[in-house]
Amino acid sequence: MSSGPALVSILRQGDILVASVHTALDDAEMVRFQEDLVEQIGQYRARGVIIDVAALDVIDSFAANTLRSIADIARLRGAHTVIVGIQPDVAFAMVSLGMGLAGVTTALDLEEGLAHLAGIRAGTRSGPSGG
Question: Domain 8-122 belongs to what architecture?
Answer without folding.
Answer: 2-Layer Sandwich (3.30)
